[in-house]
Amino acid sequence: xxxxxxxxxxxxxxxxxxxxxxxxxxxxxxxxxxxxxxxxxxxxxxxxxxxxxxxxxxxxxxxxxxxxxxxxxxxxxxxxxxxxxxxxxxxxxxxxxxxxxxxxxxxxxxxxxxxxxxxxxxxxxxxxxxxxxxxxxxxxxxxxxxxxxxxxxxxxxxxxxxxxxxxxxxxxxxxxxxxxxxxxxxxxxxxxxxxxxxxxxxx
Length: 203
Prior knowledge:
mainly alpha, Tetracycline Repressor, domain 2, globular
């Protein structure tokens, strides 16, 4: 079975309610920030729109910048679900992931530019952690590719995933700082090509 799309164990009722609350807060935040500027939206307003206490917001998101991690988790879940519908090799799956990530980010470009800059300002580790869910999806694809011969087994799948995601994260920050979407797309494409040139089997 594809490790990137393996079904997760069923969640308990408490876990489901916690996830529902988290997603409700995220949806409320994105809706408010789409209407007004990122800086003008207060935590209290997000909590009110999501029908939760302020303390509940901070339980799920220590800062507004933490929303980028939740957004990336949503993207990763969507990608994992989409991959189930495709019978593709590892290389094509990685290309599909790249395209889906760019598509999701493009839908909320202005908002995510502000969130990315804010997340990066909070510290390198928090910004890096924001992409951990995507790295897990990619690592699963790489492991499957190594098993079926699409990718070389001499590279650790987690390292391959971390390198690719780190380069994508860097290009997203550059895009957020400069607004140059074309350069970011080229960087994402070249980063994947670079990883694949080093990860494909050698003759």
